[in-house]
Amino acid sequence: MFNVLSLIFKYIFIIIIYMFIFSIIRLIYLDIKGMDFIGSGDYAYLKLINRKDSLPFKINEHYTIDEILSLGRRSSNDIIIKDPYVSKSHFQIIKDEDNYFLEDLDSANGTYLNGYILEDAVELKNGDIIKVGNIEFLFVNKGWLRWLKQR
User: Fold this and answer.
1) Nearest to 103 by CA among 80, 73, 88, 124
2) Furthest-apart CA atoms within the chain: distance in Å
3) What is the pTM of this model?
4) Which of 32, 77, 104, 148 could bridge to 72 as Cys pair (CB 3.0-4.6 Å)?
């Protein structure tokens, strides 16, 4: 009887180990799959910090910022997020020359930049964290590297 129980626990343990290894490989695959966006060139983009598969709505890993980028629940926005904490028109990012400015559009729950609530339009810096509801984005400005090299 002891040998049978020992054999059953041994196989259960092996199955648990294989499931753990499979989940790690899956996370590595999803991370590598999301890296194909990054290329060369001078541009700015928002990178999702949250785990994409943990959110109950569809969202991309990256969003390129052209001249104006708007976020909200309304379908006319560039980034559409079906989250109850996001307003219909929540915020926008505007490019002015080589600078990017974040502006809250009188949203109900506010837009946070590096942990502080936005009260006016603010210039974004490389590495800033923008939080809307439960979603966090990292602002990346690849043009910033060109600016550094010129100095």
Assistant:
1) 124
2) 78
3) 0.68
4) 77
